[in-house]
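Dear Dr. H.,

I hope your travels went smoothly. While you were away I took the liberty of generating a structure for the chain from your last submission, since the lab meeting agenda had it listed for discussion. I wanted you to have the full record in hand beforehand rather than looking at slides cold. The sequence, exactly as received, is reproduced here:
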Amino acid sequence: MQKGMHTDTERCVRAVRSKDARFDGWFFTAVLTTGIYCRPSCPVVPPKAENMVFHPSAAACQQAGFRACKRCRPDTSPGSPEWNQRADAVARAMRLIADGVVDREGVTGLAARLGYSTRQVERQLRAELGAGPLALARAQRAQTARLLIETTALPMAEIAFAAGFSSVRTFNDTVREVYALAPGELRTRAPGNTSRATPGVLSLRLPFRAPLNPDNLFGHLAATAVPGVEEWRDGAYRRTLRLPYGHGIVALTPHPDHIACRLTLGDPRDLTVAISRCRRLLDLDADPVAVDGQLRADPVLAPLVDKAPGRRVPRTVDAAEFAVRAVLGQQVSTAAARTHAARLVTAHGTPVDDPEGGLTHLFPSPGELAGLDPETLAMPRTRRTTFTTLVRRLADGDLHLGAESDWPETRAELLALPGFGPWTADVIAMRALGDPDAFLPTDLGIRRAARELGLPSTPAALTARAAAWRPWRAYAVQYLWATDSHPINFLPV
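The corresponding predicted structure, in token form, is as follows:
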């Protein structure tokens, strides 16, 4: 699987004929005779090859006049792995669009975040995705609208504005055009009875490409959970979310074929960004076949991959929060890091209500932390300086960590901060920025695993040995960590 796969007609046809779900999200099949578009794994009988054309995005299909298939629901495919494994402008633009930036800030806001002109952004997106930023955001709004129509009892007018549409008329026209059904018809056809849903609570299924091993993914999140902000309860990882229009609480439960997502939102306009951040947190748009295939080529890693394939990189819903927590965790145990973070949360976090569990606060923003007295931090003076410098840079906007971050540039900025060594910069790159090739050769757990496996254990030699794992070294880290008996490697019971 590679960039621009939709141009490889022969390969796309083979994937459609074999109904290969691994390719869902990589490309979309538009059927000339029916005027609909599908995911590759659509269960209907595949059309003749001469009646198929292939597009790189749902938005491109919609712009070409095709409607979404009612059987396979291509708009609910996992996202393309391209956008989370690349650091170029198109990939960063797609991450920002998924985060709702076009709806909130327009195309000019998107371009400004990327450091390009609107014309450059338009040209690059059209060249690779067959659609510009407005069309891509429109396709996303249509998907959000469908989710709200089918899973809530909200009035249609509220859904229209929650999904990001400027008017009810535009909402109605878009839904009819994309799904060939009026909003009311979509609700009537939806499985289950939305009227019985808990008011303000959305229950969704987050798809992923199989295989997915939940052990280290949820084990890591549960073992490092900050009291009040995160918890493991009744088989679900739960946490508070700071969102553009308000706050939310999410519960994520692993299942064999999906992640159950239960969202409570203060403002329904935050649905799109909440889903996007949960998908990034769990690395759900990864391509495990490509990752594991490359790592399996190394005879040392092959047994680890074969034993538990599909490991994901546990990431974050808030890059600035993770950076702060990374500093708190420098040279201390997991338990000590949680204690430090919990104190900050109690003293500076925003209180929230959680009728269904024990969550109490949002993690404090850099602005809320910028005014704290360093003497209240129970850590060495040099680390206090590291902490206060980071928080001040984040609060002032001099350092920005987010979906649009250029990985090499941001890593260099982090290393220039006092007290930031390679481990801190690389763990932020791996878990907060989403760099799939971030590597931690100085990590004690990685060095211990390397010694036990007969790999070089010095950072320089291990880095040289790991060159064969590129561009998936962050996933190799997960397999190496998993050789230890630390709680981060086990699904909580």
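Two observations you may find useful: The mean pLDDT is 92. The CA atoms of residues 350 and 362 lie 5 Å apart.

With kind regards,
E. W.
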